[in-house]
What does this fold into?
Amino acid sequence: GDSVTQMEGPVTLSEEAFLTINCTYTATGYPSLFWYVQYPGEGLQLLLKATKADDKGSNKGFEATYRKETTSFHLEKGSVQVSDSAVYFCALILIAGGTSYGKLTFGQGTILTVHP
Amino acid sequence: NAGVTQTPKFQVLKTGQSMTLQCAQDMNHNSMYWYRQDPGMGLRLIYYSASEGTTDKGEVPNGYNVSRLNKREFSLRLESAAPSQTSVYFCASSALRELFFGEGSRLTVL
It folds into this structure.
């Protein structure tokens, strides 16, 4: 079945450090890929997405490129801030048979803590 | 904008009790979902409703039932709560490939 694997956490960084959170996937078709972020005590918010190979999603300084050849969608940010401390989830969705709905498959989440 | 609203936000139950989690969305989305979030396991799909009048099982449906009351509302019921159902529950609705989540309901079963 479809699955998403994220790098083990937690990740602890100093402010202004470079961030990479690895994500690889297994899917039977051509999924769309997402990164969601969950701040403490809140629900999940879409951070960025990519719908086809070589697309780059970006938002709030975060980027991720859809790499079909390596089935990866790694999240990067050049300079993290304390306010980026959160749990990050990689996810994929396959649209079933041309219908307009799909079910997200999530990775296990990576806790990021950024210290001043 | 309210988006996706879940109630209650917190609930403590004793084993064997029943309860219903309510979810409503105001974005006119056809599809709605219930997920549970457990440490180290990400989010797992319990049930989903592709459109009003339909519901289907997800990855972990045992011990739960759902009702798609109308296009706006999708409830999750625990008929006889068990400690293994202690979790954070998220409702979501979707437009094409993007899901919008509620803030979550933290349920503890003693």
The two ends of chain B are 35 Å apart (CA to CA).
